[in-house]
Design goal:
about 240 residues, mainly alpha, two-stranded antiparallel sheet, 12 helices, disordered C terminus
Length: about 240
Protein backbone atom coordinates (compact mmCIF):
# COMPACT_ATOMS: atom_id res chain seq x y z
CA UNK A 1 0.00 0.00 0.00
CA UNK A 2 2.81 2.28 0.91
CA UNK A 3 4.51 1.68 -2.44
CA UNK A 4 1.27 2.44 -4.26
CA UNK A 5 0.91 5.77 -2.43
CA UNK A 6 4.50 6.69 -3.27
CA UNK A 7 3.87 5.81 -6.91
CA UNK A 8 0.69 7.91 -7.02
CA UNK A 9 2.53 10.80 -5.39
CA UNK A 10 5.36 10.61 -7.93
CA UNK A 11 2.87 10.43 -10.77
CA UNK A 12 1.08 13.53 -9.49
CA UNK A 13 4.38 15.40 -9.22
CA UNK A 14 5.28 14.41 -12.77
CA UNK A 15 1.92 15.67 -14.03
CA UNK A 16 2.33 18.90 -12.10
CA UNK A 17 5.79 19.47 -13.55
CA UNK A 18 4.42 18.75 -17.02
CA UNK A 19 1.64 21.28 -16.56
CA UNK A 20 4.15 23.86 -15.34
CA UNK A 21 6.29 23.23 -18.43
CA UNK A 22 3.28 23.81 -20.70
CA UNK A 23 2.46 27.02 -18.85
CA UNK A 24 6.07 28.15 -19.19
CA UNK A 25 5.78 27.68 -22.95
CA UNK A 26 2.56 29.66 -23.00
CA UNK A 27 3.98 32.72 -21.22
CA UNK A 28 6.75 33.32 -23.75
CA UNK A 29 5.23 36.65 -24.65
CA UNK A 30 6.86 40.02 -25.31
CA UNK A 31 7.57 40.53 -21.60
CA UNK A 32 9.34 37.16 -21.45
CA UNK A 33 11.70 38.13 -24.28
CA UNK A 34 12.24 41.59 -22.80
CA UNK A 35 13.30 40.12 -19.46
CA UNK A 36 15.50 37.54 -21.15
CA UNK A 37 17.07 40.28 -23.26
CA UNK A 38 17.91 42.29 -20.15
CA UNK A 39 19.52 39.17 -18.69
CA UNK A 40 21.62 38.82 -21.84
CA UNK A 41 22.64 42.47 -21.52
CA UNK A 42 23.72 41.91 -17.95
CA UNK A 43 25.88 39.03 -19.21
CA UNK A 44 27.35 41.44 -21.81
CA UNK A 45 25.77 39.59 -24.74
CA UNK A 46 24.51 42.65 -26.61
CA UNK A 47 23.86 40.98 -29.95
CA UNK A 48 21.87 38.22 -28.26
CA UNK A 49 19.88 40.84 -26.37
CA UNK A 50 19.12 42.70 -29.61
CA UNK A 51 17.73 39.48 -31.10
CA UNK A 52 15.53 38.92 -28.05
CA UNK A 53 14.18 42.50 -28.10
CA UNK A 54 13.43 41.97 -31.78
CA UNK A 55 11.44 38.84 -30.90
CA UNK A 56 9.47 40.86 -28.36
CA UNK A 57 8.69 43.44 -31.04
CA UNK A 58 7.65 40.75 -33.49
CA UNK A 59 4.99 39.75 -30.96
CA UNK A 60 4.02 43.34 -30.11
CA UNK A 61 5.35 46.12 -32.39
CA UNK A 62 4.03 48.73 -29.94
CA UNK A 63 6.14 47.43 -27.03
CA UNK A 64 8.04 50.66 -26.46
CA UNK A 65 10.33 49.41 -23.71
CA UNK A 66 11.72 46.65 -25.93
CA UNK A 67 12.19 49.14 -28.78
CA UNK A 68 14.04 51.67 -26.64
CA UNK A 69 16.28 48.91 -25.25
CA UNK A 70 17.03 47.65 -28.75
CA UNK A 71 17.66 51.15 -30.14
CA UNK A 72 20.17 51.90 -27.40
CA UNK A 73 22.10 48.68 -28.00
CA UNK A 74 22.06 49.17 -31.76
CA UNK A 75 23.51 52.64 -31.21
CA UNK A 76 26.32 51.37 -28.97
CA UNK A 77 27.05 48.58 -31.44
CA UNK A 78 27.55 51.19 -34.17
CA UNK A 79 24.48 50.09 -36.14
CA UNK A 80 23.37 53.70 -36.55
CA UNK A 81 21.01 53.15 -39.48
CA UNK A 82 19.00 50.53 -37.56
CA UNK A 83 19.09 52.55 -34.35
CA UNK A 84 17.81 55.59 -36.26
CA UNK A 85 14.82 53.58 -37.47
CA UNK A 86 13.84 52.87 -33.86
CA UNK A 87 14.42 56.45 -32.71
CA UNK A 88 12.43 57.75 -35.68
CA UNK A 89 9.59 55.51 -34.53
CA UNK A 90 9.48 57.41 -31.25
CA UNK A 91 9.72 60.74 -33.08
CA UNK A 92 6.66 59.84 -35.14
CA UNK A 93 4.66 58.47 -32.22
CA UNK A 94 2.66 61.50 -31.19
CA UNK A 95 1.58 62.76 -28.72
CA UNK A 96 3.39 60.50 -26.24
CA UNK A 97 6.82 61.19 -27.63
CA UNK A 98 7.76 63.48 -30.51
CA UNK A 99 10.94 65.45 -31.27
CA UNK A 100 12.06 65.83 -27.68
CA UNK A 101 12.38 62.12 -26.82
CA UNK A 102 15.76 60.44 -27.37
CA UNK A 103 16.73 63.40 -29.52
CA UNK A 104 20.41 63.17 -28.52
CA UNK A 105 20.64 59.63 -29.90
CA UNK A 106 18.51 60.40 -32.94
CA UNK A 107 20.55 63.46 -33.89
CA UNK A 108 23.86 61.74 -33.25
CA UNK A 109 22.82 58.82 -35.47
CA UNK A 110 22.18 61.27 -38.29
CA UNK A 111 25.54 62.93 -37.71
CA UNK A 112 27.31 59.57 -37.71
CA UNK A 113 25.55 58.67 -40.97
CA UNK A 114 26.61 61.94 -42.61
CA UNK A 115 23.05 63.32 -42.56
CA UNK A 116 24.21 66.77 -41.46
CA UNK A 117 21.31 68.77 -42.89
CA UNK A 118 18.73 66.43 -41.35
CA UNK A 119 20.55 66.61 -38.01
CA UNK A 120 20.41 70.41 -38.07
CA UNK A 121 16.70 70.36 -38.87
CA UNK A 122 16.19 68.02 -35.91
CA UNK A 123 18.09 70.37 -33.62
CA UNK A 124 16.01 73.33 -34.76
CA UNK A 125 12.78 71.45 -34.09
CA UNK A 126 13.96 70.38 -30.64
CA UNK A 127 14.62 74.04 -29.82
CA UNK A 128 11.10 75.00 -30.86
CA UNK A 129 9.44 72.04 -29.16
CA UNK A 130 11.16 72.78 -25.85
CA UNK A 131 10.68 76.52 -26.12
CA UNK A 132 14.41 77.16 -25.75
CA UNK A 133 17.43 74.91 -25.32
CA UNK A 134 20.58 77.03 -25.64
CA UNK A 135 22.70 73.88 -25.47
CA UNK A 136 21.08 72.52 -28.62
CA UNK A 137 21.56 75.90 -30.31
CA UNK A 138 25.25 75.80 -29.43
CA UNK A 139 25.43 72.26 -30.85
CA UNK A 140 23.96 73.65 -34.06
CA UNK A 141 26.52 76.45 -34.15
CA UNK A 142 29.37 74.01 -33.54
CA UNK A 143 28.16 71.65 -36.27
CA UNK A 144 27.78 74.53 -38.72
CA UNK A 145 31.31 75.68 -37.97
CA UNK A 146 32.44 72.25 -39.12
CA UNK A 147 30.11 72.45 -42.14
CA UNK A 148 29.86 76.15 -43.08
CA UNK A 149 27.76 75.40 -46.17
CA UNK A 150 24.82 74.93 -43.79
CA UNK A 151 25.08 78.33 -42.13
CA UNK A 152 21.70 79.28 -43.61
CA UNK A 153 20.10 76.70 -41.29
CA UNK A 154 20.33 79.24 -38.47
CA UNK A 155 18.07 81.67 -40.31
CA UNK A 156 14.35 81.94 -39.68
CA UNK A 157 13.53 81.66 -43.38
CA UNK A 158 15.03 78.18 -43.54
CA UNK A 159 12.51 76.74 -41.07
CA UNK A 160 9.26 78.63 -41.61
CA UNK A 161 7.31 75.36 -41.70
CA UNK A 162 8.58 74.39 -38.25
CA UNK A 163 8.01 77.89 -36.87
CA UNK A 164 4.42 77.68 -38.10
CA UNK A 165 4.04 74.24 -36.49
CA UNK A 166 5.18 75.52 -33.08
CA UNK A 167 3.88 79.09 -33.27
CA UNK A 168 2.03 78.71 -29.97
CA UNK A 169 5.44 78.63 -28.30
CA UNK A 170 5.86 82.35 -29.04
CA UNK A 171 5.57 83.53 -25.44
CA UNK A 172 7.69 80.69 -24.07
CA UNK A 173 10.49 81.54 -26.48
CA UNK A 174 10.18 85.26 -25.71
CA UNK A 175 10.49 84.59 -21.98
CA UNK A 176 13.42 82.25 -22.62
CA UNK A 177 15.16 84.88 -24.74
CA UNK A 178 14.75 87.42 -21.94
CA UNK A 179 16.81 85.24 -19.59
CA UNK A 180 19.89 85.97 -21.68
CA UNK A 181 19.39 89.72 -21.28
CA UNK A 182 19.18 89.22 -17.53
CA UNK A 183 22.55 87.44 -17.49
CA UNK A 184 25.98 89.00 -17.68
CA UNK A 185 26.31 90.82 -20.99
CA UNK A 186 28.56 89.08 -23.48
CA UNK A 187 28.51 88.31 -27.17
CA UNK A 188 27.35 84.73 -26.68
CA UNK A 189 24.34 85.71 -24.59
CA UNK A 190 23.52 88.45 -27.11
CA UNK A 191 23.66 85.89 -29.92
CA UNK A 192 21.37 83.55 -28.03
CA UNK A 193 18.93 86.37 -27.28
CA UNK A 194 18.78 87.52 -30.90
CA UNK A 195 18.20 83.97 -32.12
CA UNK A 196 15.34 83.15 -29.74
CA UNK A 197 13.64 86.55 -29.86
CA UNK A 198 13.78 86.48 -33.65
CA UNK A 199 11.89 83.19 -33.74
CA UNK A 200 9.41 84.46 -31.15
CA UNK A 201 8.70 87.59 -33.20
CA UNK A 202 8.14 85.50 -36.32
CA UNK A 203 5.68 83.34 -34.38
CA UNK A 204 3.81 86.38 -33.07
CA UNK A 205 3.56 87.70 -36.64
CA UNK A 206 2.00 84.43 -37.75
CA UNK A 207 -0.47 84.47 -34.88
CA UNK A 208 -1.41 88.09 -35.67
CA UNK A 209 -1.97 87.26 -39.33
CA UNK A 210 -4.19 84.35 -38.38
CA UNK A 211 -6.13 86.56 -36.00
CA UNK A 212 -6.68 89.20 -38.69
CA UNK A 213 -7.79 86.56 -41.16
CA UNK A 214 -10.36 85.24 -38.69
CA UNK A 215 -11.94 88.65 -37.97
CA UNK A 216 -15.29 88.87 -39.72
CA UNK A 217 -16.45 92.26 -41.06
CA UNK A 218 -19.03 93.99 -38.84
CA UNK A 219 -22.35 94.42 -40.59
CA UNK A 220 -24.74 97.29 -39.81
CA UNK A 221 -28.31 97.63 -40.93
CA UNK A 222 -29.28 101.06 -42.31
CA UNK A 223 -32.59 102.78 -41.72
CA UNK A 224 -35.11 100.94 -43.89
CA UNK A 225 -36.10 102.74 -47.02
CA UNK A 226 -37.82 101.74 -50.18
CA UNK A 227 -35.08 99.16 -50.75
CA UNK A 228 -33.63 97.91 -47.45
CA UNK A 229 -29.95 97.08 -47.67
CA UNK A 230 -27.05 95.78 -45.58
CA UNK A 231 -23.93 97.94 -45.62
CA UNK A 232 -20.45 96.77 -44.71
CA UNK A 233 -19.11 99.20 -42.12
CA UNK A 234 -15.61 99.02 -43.59
CA UNK A 235 -16.95 99.91 -47.04
CA UNK A 236 -19.03 102.73 -45.60
CA UNK A 237 -16.00 104.22 -43.84
CA UNK A 238 -14.03 104.05 -47.09
Amino acid sequence: MKKILVFVFCLMCACFIGIESVNAEQVKDEQYYLNLGKDYEWKNNRLGAIDLYTKALEINPDFDEARSQRARLLYFEGKYDKALEDYTYFYNKQPQYGPGVYYEYRIDCKKKLGMTEAALDDMYEVILAYGGQAKVLQDMIDLIQENPEYKYKLSIDSHMDLIAKYKNQAKTLKDYAQTFLDKKYNMQNKEYYNFFIGISNAMYDMLAQESDANVKPVLRRTVPGEAEQIINVEQEQN
